[in-house]
Fold this protein.
Amino acid sequence: MNKKSLNHFNKFMTIFLLIVNSIITFAVKADSARIVESKRGFLASEMFCGDRNYPIPSMTRGDKNYTKNCYKIGSFTNMERLFKYKEILRSDQIQTLDYLEGENTSNFKSALSNLIESYPLTALIVSKNNKIITEYYGYSRTQQQRFASFSIQKSFNAILIGIALHQNLIKNLDDPAIKYLQELRNSEWKSVTIRQLLTMTSGIKADQRKLIMPLLFGNSRVLEVVTNHDTRIAPSGTTFTYNDSNALILGKIIESVFKNSWHKVFEEKLWSKIGAEDDASVLESGSGEVLTNAFFNARLRDYMRLGLMIANGGKNFLGERLISINWINKIYGIDKEFIDCPIGAGKYCPGLGPFGYTYQTWKSPSGSSIFFMGKYGQLIFIHPASKTVAVILSAIKSGRWVHIFTKEMKIFLRELAS
């Protein structure tokens, strides 16, 4: 290429990139009056080492406790710096989010203020009637960062299983998992059905730490670890027993029936179709397998786009149906199988307390809302009656309900549903 041609090419590329940038900027443009990026946060320095700029562990030097309080804020927005991961690509078409004009109610502002002052809230976004009413980032977190969502990913498995069922790749939810994964044939998992995996009623427990650590920090194979942790405590289908193995097996079934890696299936069936503004990622094990239980990372607004698709009956922003309405109803728990124990809401079933459980999804005690939930206070909350979707990302002490659903959080959620 001669000098003159090169100059023309450089000018063309400059203009082209400016146009592309303006398109993307327009597509993700938000009402700045609705967005708050704060350096503050509950116990920022006292607990989370804000005075040290929210550090992350030096994994190469053996300091691998990324969930230690001092590391939580930094780690939960830098998982790709700590672990190997797979990229999940967005499409070129981005959904523009609409922001509500005018003021929020004084009750809402008060509930949000109290939550921020008393809860380790890293980011939050709320939509009412498909319009964003608030967007908040704490602890110096930003709009461009990807946030870890932990066990929210389990609900993504349920969505993909529903798509596989609709496409007849899975014949029946009461099929035993072994029909799709022969590797389970010599374990307690051999008689567990897909439905029981979805509802956490396999009757098999595992030490969660002993299950996850060899996958994150070792070279163990997923199904090898799962089959080595198969202690049966109840007949399948009779008791709710929360166990990440259920999600890991579902992930392997998804890969088996779609004949592709989990991240590529999620990309094709969902992420490329919800109008995401950024790529997402999912961590992989030391052996190079995608972890399908608790290691998905994305921007706050993209979690919202996924929640809006669920709230809009499984249709995306273009009106394209991604999930059948029958499966959406199952996720909401609209079926007789979700009424009574072992998973009925408000029944105080063993292992669930007042909450209910549908397909890898939690249900409020009243049954009026559902939420995808992560261990450290990550929630995608959907309340159909008020057309409310909220994404709440946090760094709480642990996954116990008393830590997630504090008095201030309950007040805030009730205000959302009003």
Observations:
- Residues 1-30 have pLDDT under 50 and may be disordered.
